[in-house]
Amino acid sequence: MRLAPLLVLAVTCLALPASARAATDALLLRLFLTDGTSLLSYGEYARVNDRVIFSMMVGGNADAPRLHAVALPARIVDWPRTDRHAASARYQRYAATRGEQDFLRLNDDVAAVLNEILLTRDPVRALSIAERARGTLVRWPREHYGYRQQDVQEIVALLDEAMSGLKPAADVPSFDVTLVAGTPEVALEPVAEVPSVREQLDQAVRVAALTDRASERVALLQSALALLGDAGTSIPARDIAAMRRRLTGEIRAEHAVDARYTELARRLVTQATRAAARANIGGVQRVLSRIPREDSRLGQRRPEVVQALLASVQGQLDAARKLRLVRDQWAVNRTLYREYQRTVGAQLLQLVKSQPSLEAIRRLEGPSPNTLMTLRGRLSGGAERLSRMQVPEPLRPTHDLLVGSWRFAEHAINGRFDAIRTADVTTAWEASSAAAGSLLMLSRVQQEIRALLELPRLP
Questions:
Q1: Which of 13-22, 164-173, 237-246 shows the lowest per-residue confidence on average (mean pLDDT)?
Q2: What is the CA radius of gyration of the chain?
């Protein structure tokens, strides 16, 4: 069997040295834009929905950089070109740092497996071990940026030949076709270097012009302004002064635009809110239609503010439409509400007059037995009479509260009588609870009746 010489050759191939250079600097990736230019990302970037998020260097040094997180529209990035560069940069970074160490670890693992195959006397087990080793080798380049791919493929080929020698002994058909999709070769490109102060300044200013978010734009300009203090002699003093004037002017201009849009939003939201409070749907719609015109007048400089403003005014329009419906409903039912107030007015007045006595019962301090007798005669049977009244459906919840308040009042008065007769404090506390419930419901009934009689308003 030719297995032993082949496996020795495999181990020898795995141990072939690979060139690698030490590198401690961070991974730098270029984002190529559709206009042919590029930006430098300090570390990995992330594509989230329609945004690309990355960190850019704005000061410090390679070991301790000052980073600024940036989010730009993903549509401005040339993704095929960017992905090719990223694959090259990741490959070279991996090769220069962990690649050889990981490959040597693979070498040791595979050598141990091959040694186990040589020592085993069971061909079936030896074949199973070889198949597992083959699977590890096939996956390794895909999981390690294609590093040492050719070396690994040669070992896989040798292992396949060895396995074909094992299969007859293991009583396994030797005919087997295994197709393996190799990892595409990585086209190496020049590795990006840490940008100079001037390059950092230029990139910060350029990214500020590309971002569509005003707050981020101002933050970038301020970072660039702070970076001028680190320039030292790397940039002529005259250029630094000119750049400082330019950056200061742009920041001042951005603040002025912010102020104009803030005033616009305040004014239009106030108008829309007032119109909505009057259920003036047409007035709110006129404010809504003004927003695009006012935005155009200001140069369409704050899309995020305009979007929020549109949403706010649209909310006022929805509220105005709802209020209009509620007021129309109120107008239809207003006669019912007034008639109900007249119908239950006398009973409601009886409960209102009983409030001081119910308060005394709640506090366990009265009233006098004579007052209780008067209240009992005044309120007795009132809840039953109220419950038999025919009430329009919109008023049913309010009327049920009135009936409940009256029942609790009757229970409180009767309970207080029992407490006096038996001198039982526990019974007095039960009466107190009933009085509290009656007072609470009565207050709610009064509020709801007042609300029914008033023109509905926005919350």
A1: 13-22
A2: 42
Name the region of 232 (left: φ>0; alpha: ψ -120 to 50; beta: rest).
left
State the pLDDT at residue 123: 78
Report the predicted TM-score, pTM, of the whole model to 2 decimal places.
0.62
Q: Distance between CA atoms of 165 and 365, rounded to whole angstroms?
A: 106
Same domain (yes/no): 215, 291 = yes
Q: Which of 256, 286, 312 is the last residue of a domain?
A: 312
92 and 226 housed in the same domain: no
Whose tokens are 């699977």? That residue is 135
Assess if residue 359 is contained within a domain.
yes
Calculate the average pLDDT of the chain.
Answer: 86
**What is the predicted pLDDT for the residue at 152?**
84
User: Which residue, 242, 353, 356, 261, is CA-closest to 302?
Assistant: 261
Tell me, yes or no, whether 190 lies in a domain.
no
Element (H, E) at 392: none
Query: CA dist 52 to 45, 46, 349, Å?
Result: 7, 6, 69
Residue 182: predicted pLDDT: 59
pLDDT at residue 430 above 50?
yes
> Residue 289 class from Cβ within 10 Å (0-12 exposed, 13-18 middle, 19+ buried)?
exposed
Domain boundary residue, one of 142, 164, 185: 185
pLDDT per position as a tens digit, 136-194: 888 888 888 888 888 888 888 877 777 777 767 666 665 454 545 556 778 888 988 88
71 within a domain of the structure (yes/no): no
Per-position DSSP letters for 59-124, written without gaps between them: EE-SSSEEEEEEEEEGGGB-HHHHHHHHHHHHHHHHIIIIIHHHHHHHHHHHHHHHHHHHH---HH
pLDDT of 438:
93
DSSP conformation letters of 242-306: HHHHHHHHHHHHHHHHHHHHHHHHHHHHHHHHHHHHTT-HHHHHHHHHHHHHHHHHTTS--HHHH
Say how many domains are in the chain: 3
Asked whether residue 114 is domain-assigned, the answer is yes
